[in-house]
Amino acid sequence: MRQRLTARLGRRTARSLALASAAAVVLAACSTGGKADSGSDLSADDGKNGGPAAIVVAPGADSAKIPVSRKVTVRAQGGSLTSVEVTSPGPGRLSGTWSKGKSVWTSTTPLAPGATYTVTAIGKASGGSALNKTASFSTEAAKNTFVGEYYPDKGTKVGVAMPVSITFNKPVHDKAAVERRLKVTSSPAVEGAWSWMKDRDGKDRIDFRPERYWKPGTDVTLRMDLAGVDAGGGVYGTQQRVVNFTIGDAVTSTVDTKKKTMTVAKNGKTLRTLKVSTGKTGFETWNGTMVVLSKVPTIRMNSDTVGIFGPEAYDLGAVKWDVQLTPSGTYAHAAPWNAGKFGVVNGSHGCIGMSTSDAKWFYDQVHLGDPVTVVNSVDTVATNNGYGDWNVDWAAWKKGSALD
User: Which among 17, 137, 158, 359 is placed 20 to 30 Å from 107, CA to CA?
Assistant: First the structure.
């Protein structure tokens, strides 16, 4: 969240000084010392030994592009500071802390790579005259950066089981540093937690979910303040994102592999119970809760894509009304070739098959983020196989945070 950083400070008593509105601009590291534009050294006593009252900013306008590891320091030389604002159009504002004497402000937010910052500082000389300073500087472009691919998209309406999910394109060695710069808020407010995992392709991924499903109508906001964050080993973030989305109706589906039925409810009211055929022995449909990932009206289903060869190989051609539940290939779809099996026997290779008319009806009811829970099957779906997040109990889920 971008937040204006303004501090009101008390008057600082000092020896009589010559007043001047001119200010030096310096380059500083993590220490409080630095070099002025003129090249003169500054010390803690500057302004007490006859020097002009001024606001000194480090790093300075004529500095070379600086590394993001540096701090921004604003010093009232011969006076006190009233307010300090350091901002960049992309990364936003920096936070900072004040010295005990309230004459020095030092940034605490990491600088973003390849950004230009403007410093605006206001203060007061010990004699009462106003001091002000505006300066700017640019940071080095990062040689190694990372980004996170996030879901759901901005402005979407999703189901009650949709987590916030971010998968990173580079390894995240300092997970705590990254997690601290991620925030999810909602209206109405709800308790939630982040949890880290490896995605199916081995990439680092972090998901956020409430203890229980979102309430319909909830407005959710994800804030990614990753610009300048070191993920470990000098790999820096570049993203500043605010992503808003809304939770739609509670459309929940329960598949009973013993009864060979799927019961669909909306906001607690049962709509229909459909006859289905799930995975046969050796190809059982995943047990547990899966979340709708996508919908497509027609898709070609070929066993080669899911690693099934030999006697069980198949090529079904164009399959209608496909609701994807896992990246590993679990769908709920029309299966007219199994017409005699619905409600009678489980005969699929892991998908949830039903009549074409029932599949069309189901397709029209569900949306991205709706939960589909399978009971009385085997092998609970993995957390990273789509959004299997809801199969982890709440205490274990919270332990997946890097901040616990």
Answer: 17
